[in-house]
């Protein structure tokens, strides 16, 4: 049976971007089902794929995997031969910490700077709680990039699961005009330079749906 990844709008769905980017970057073949968020079609069809009624969801044969980080972990074992994490155990532990921190934290950043690929920067409108999240993300990136200096352009040198988890934050930083130093800017640029990321962005810009306060 085919492998299928069910996602939301590419313009908005940060959770969908994460496993999609990982799978596409590593050349894993999958069928894509896109369900536009907040539509009757979404609410009618998502339950066929996801027991939580949320995206992303992966179907691989008879197996359903319905969480973004769990999908990445499954892909790492199923298709990537462990390449999604650093080979060194200590660095692998740090990568998992970073991915888990993104997976469970940064609520103010998520809420006040929702992902919107087509957004262009305007005046700042986030509060100090979101700024603390921004500061923490950027400090973490600087720390990890410093430790990986000369080994590649991503958080642990080569692109991996930790980078996939933070890719939507790169979209947020660009779209909302978040100030970035040279290290952070170079990392965001490296994420955007990925062929898979360019493919996602092009598809997002071609979408016509608008959800909620699209231009907030």
Detailed description of the structure:
By secondary structure, the chain is an alpha+beta fold. It is 51% helix and 7% strand. It has helices spanning 14-25, 40-45, 68-78, 89-104, 107-112, 128-147, 161-175, 182-193, 195-206; strands at residues 3-7, 31-34, 57-60, 63-65. Strands 2-1-3-4 form a 4-stranded mixed β-sheet. Helix 1 (14-25) links the parallel strand 1 (3-7) and strand 2. Helix 1 (14-25) packs parallel to helix 3 (68-78), helix 1 (14-25) crosses helix 7 (161-175) and helix 4 crosses helix 7 (161-175). The longest helix has 20 residues, at 128-147. It is globular, with a radius of gyration of 17 Å. The termini are far apart. The mean pLDDT is 95.
Question: Which features characterize this protein?
Answer:
single chain, alpha+beta, globular, 216 residues, four-stranded mixed beta sheet
Condensed summary:
By secondary structure, the protein is of the alpha+beta class. The chain has 9 helices and 4 strands.
pLDDT < 50 stretches: none
Span of the ends, CA to CA: 42 Å
Q: Supply the helix-strand structural class.
A: alpha+beta
Strand order in the largest sheet: 2-1-3-4
For the biggest sheet, the summary is:
4 strands, mixed
Continuous helix count: 9
Q: Which word captures the global form?
A: globular
The ordered H/E elements are: EHEHEEHHHHHHH
Average pLDDT, rounded to a whole number, is 95
Number of strands: 4
Helix coverage percent = 40-55%
Radius of gyration: 17 Å
Strand content bin = 5-15%
């Amino acid at each position: 049976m085919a492998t299928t990844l069910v996602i939301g709008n590419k313009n908005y769905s940060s959770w969908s971007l994460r496993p999609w980017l990982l799978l596409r970057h590593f050349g894993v073949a999958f069928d894509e089902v896109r369900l536009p968020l907040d539509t009757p079609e979404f609410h009618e069809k998502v339950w066929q794929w996801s027991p939580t009624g949320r995206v992303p969801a992966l179907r691989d044969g008879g197996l359903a995997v319905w969480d973004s980080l769990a999908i990445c972990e499954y892909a790492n074992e199923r298709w990537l031969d462990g390449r999604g994490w650093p080979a060194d155990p200590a660095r692998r532990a740090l990568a998992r910490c970073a991915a888990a921190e993104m997976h469970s934290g940064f609520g103010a950043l998520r809420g006040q700077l929702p992902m919107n690929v087509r957004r262009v920067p305007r005046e700042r409108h986030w509060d100090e709680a979101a700024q603390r999240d921004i500061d923490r993300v950027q400090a973490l990136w600087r720390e990890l990039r410093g430790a990986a200096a000369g080994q590649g352009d991503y958080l642990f040198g080569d692109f991996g699961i930790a980078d996939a988890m933070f890719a939507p934050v790169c979209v947020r930083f660009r779209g909302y005009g978040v100030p970035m130093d040279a290290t952070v800017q170079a990392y965001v640029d490296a994420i955007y330079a990925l062929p898979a990321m360019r493919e996602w962005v092009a598809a997002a810009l071609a979408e016509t749906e608008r959800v909620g306060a699209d231009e907030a």
